Each structure stands twice: as C-alpha cells, then as structure tokens.
Amino acid sequence: MARNTGPVCRMCRREGMKLFLKGLRCDTNKCAFERRQTPPGMHTFRRGKLTDYGIHLREKQKVKHFYGVLERQFRRYFQRAERAKGNTGKVLMSLLERRLDSIVHRLGWGPSRAQSRQMICHGHITVNGSPVDIAGYEVRVGDVIGVKLRKKSTELVQANMSEFQRELPDFLVRVEGEKPEGQIVRLPEAEDVSIPVEPNLIVELCSK
After folding, report:
1. Considering the domain boundaries, does residue 1 fall inside one?
2. How far apart are CA 48 and CA 86, in angstroms?
3. pLDDT value at position 1?
4. DSSP letters spanning 112-177
5. pTM for this entry
C-alpha cells in the first residue's frame, strides 16, 4: 500500500493548522507547528497571496493529509460522492469519516490515524466480531467495532485510551472494560469533522 513517508509536521505547517498527525506529540510543546508556524521550504517571506486555484487546492490537500489518503483514493471517494444523492461535499466528508481507521481514532484507541491504520493492518481490530485488516473499510450504522480477544491487543488499546483522551463524537458510543467496544449509531456528517473544512471548495476544484 502506498503511503506518505516524509515528515508529517511539514504538512501541518503547509496547511497553516494542526492536523494532529503525530497523536500525543501534537498536544505537547514538542509540536513542530507550535515552534515554527511558517510554511516549509526556503524563501517563505517572498511568497505572495494565494490564487483562487491555490485556495481550492490547499483545501483538498488539507483533507487528503488529514485522512491519510492519496490522490487516486481521494478521486474514487469523490466519484462516489458525485453519484450519491445529496450535497456532494457533505457526502464526500461522510465517506472519509466512515473509514475504519478514522473510527478507531475517534474512539480514542489510536492517538493518530496513522497509528490506527497500523493497528488495523496488524489485526488488532474487529468489526461485528470478524477481524478486519483493511484501514479503508467502510463502516455502517449498527456496526460494532471491537478489539481482538488477545492480551497484546487489549493492552495496546487500553494504554492508548488512558493516555489519549479526546471528545467522543455523538455518532459513536463506546463501552470501556476488559474488551473495549464501540458502535456506530448514525452516519457521520460533514459537521462531525474535527477540523474546519469547506467541502464546496473541494467540489469546485474536482469538478473541473
């Protein structure tokens, strides 16, 4: 599976906001964005105002980096959103938020989406009792997300939950205990995204 292997803190600096790509580190004074909020690269002081195209592009790149998807994956999500009923931008954000790695992260089991993807690929996570190792698996209403019944998996999730505490969105319910579980009570919407996003800019760019 292709993935970005460069320094992720540059992505936050490029987008001008925290994307929380390094989990717990982003909440400490070690966060690179807190120390250097200028865009990466040389001669940043010479860069002028973004063009209209640049504003649209930055919005798309921000969403791609936030969810950890590459261009081809993002295009597939957009094509599905175009074919679906309703507002294309809102459907797009809902599809991205329904990714299993995003759900695991929002449950607090993984400090970042990257670590959540690793947990899924290593077989720590189940959906409706069956192991799932595909980070982009699309959850549905009523799905029960669980942790594999083995000591290593439960200890990893419980350790992450004790250190990583963020507000649980209302489209999820979480059961804590020896075997942590979470359930999807409704489909996530564009308003549930935890960073400010303007989906209409992405739609305008990708529709050209």
Report:
1. no
2. 37
3. 47
4. SHHHHHHHHHTT-EEETTEE---TTPBP-TT-EEEE-SSHHHHHHHHHHHHH---PPPTTEEEE-S
5. 0.83
